[in-house]
């Protein structure tokens, strides 16, 4: 199942996981040690993050390590930047409209 | 954009709210008109080269603005904004939703809260947009702005002074 990337970051616990593994790849157990919650709940969050392609898994010996897909995180920033530009452009235009109206009133 | 005037844009992913604050070098009643009168709104609402065309607008509680963003190729994307609360020259709230050409809204939409205030002849507008799903905001961008945008920014300086009230 393909999920929306914004669903991945909508949950505070998932954001905390992202922050953790941004520093280094970690096993699910090591991640769970940082939270006051069941191992199952961490697994569920990791599954969602994986489905959103925000994290990747890597087998090392008997352990699975989770790490962050930095590229995917950048997509979010890029997307927000576009939204910001829409408003910036719109308001630039309004600045001009306002100054035109003011000149006409004089 | 006038560099002395504030423009602030923030996305709070946790509360799914976009906050935009902008100052304008104009008095409050003029800025209020620019947001509430279709003939002025249509001059700036669509980032160029898109144009905004308001088909219906009754600025009153329970009233609506039914408008289209029209691409340079003539493709229209319709939206409905329903006014849910109005405090003249201070605040208004609306429910924004995409629509088809027959005014059927595509729910869920987003809740907008717009605040206006004036100090020393500078009018500040603060907009908070709450989206039930961020996916919806994403769609707003996918609906065609991307291409036009970079271009818009580049041409902005030369393009804008030609804007005038008809």
Short description:
By secondary structure, chain A is mostly helical. Chain A contains five helices and two strands, in the order ααααββα. Chain A has two domains: 1-68, Winged helix-like DNA-binding domain superfamily/Winged helix DNA-binding domain (Arc Repressor Mutant, subunit A); 70-106.
What would you say this structure looks like, in words?
The complex is a heterodimer of chains A (106) and B (166). Chain A has a two-stranded antiparallel ribbon with strand order 1-2. Chain A is elongated, with a radius of gyration of 21 Å. Chain A is built from five helices and two strands; from the N terminus they run ααααββα. Chain A folds into two domains: 1-68, Orthogonal Bundle (Arc Repressor Mutant, subunit A); 70-106. With 106 residues, chain A is mainly α. Helices cover 66% and strands 11% of the residues of chain A. Chain A has helices spanning 5-8, 12-23, 28-32, 39-51, 70-105; strands at 55-60, 63-68. Chain B has 166 residues and is of the alpha+beta class. Chain B has one domain (7-162): START domain (Alpha-D-Glucose-1,6-Bisphosphate, Chain A, domain 4, 2-Layer Sandwich), CATH 3.30.530.20. Chain B contains four helices and eight strands, in the order E-E-H-H-E-E-E-E-E-E-H-H. Chain B has an eight-stranded antiparallel beta sheet with strand order 1-2-8-7-6-5-4-3. In chain B, helix 1 packs across helix 2. The interface between A and B is large, with 31 and 43 residues.
């Amino acid at each position: 199942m393909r999920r929306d990337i914004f669903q991945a970051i909508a949950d505070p616990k998932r954001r905390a996981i992202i922050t953790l593994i941004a520093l280094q790849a970690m096993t699910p157990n090591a991640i769970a040690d940082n939270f006051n919650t069941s191992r199952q709940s961490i697994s569920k969050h990791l599954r969602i993050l994986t489905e959103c392609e925000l994290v990747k898994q890597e087998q090392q010996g008997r352990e699975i390590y989770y790490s962050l897909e930095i590229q995917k995180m950048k997509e979010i920033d890029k997307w927000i930047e576009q939204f910001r530009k829409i408003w910036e452009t719109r308001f630039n235009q309004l600045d001009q409209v306002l100054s035109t109206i003011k000149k006409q009133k004089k | 954009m006038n560099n002395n005037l504030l423009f602030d844009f923030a996305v709070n992913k946790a509360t799914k709210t976009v906050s935009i604050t902008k100052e304008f070098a104009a008095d409050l009643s003029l800025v209020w008109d620019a947001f509430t009168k279709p003939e002025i709104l249509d001059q700036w609402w669509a980032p160029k080269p898109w144009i905004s065309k308001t088909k219906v607008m009754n600025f009153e509680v329970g009233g609506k603005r039914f408008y289209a963003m029209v691409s340079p190729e003539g493709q229209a994307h319709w939206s409905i904004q329903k006014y849910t609360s109005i405090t003249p020259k201070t605040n208004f709230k609306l429910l924004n939703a995409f629509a088809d050409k027959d005014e059927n809204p595509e729910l869920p939409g987003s809740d907008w809260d717009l605040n206006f205030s004036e100090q020393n002849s500078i009018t500040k507008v603060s907009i908070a947009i709450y989206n039930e799903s961020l996916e919806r905001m994403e769609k707003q961008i996918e609906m065609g702005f991307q291409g036009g945008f970079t271009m818009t920014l580049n041409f902005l300086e030369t393009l804008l002074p030609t804007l005038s009230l008809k």
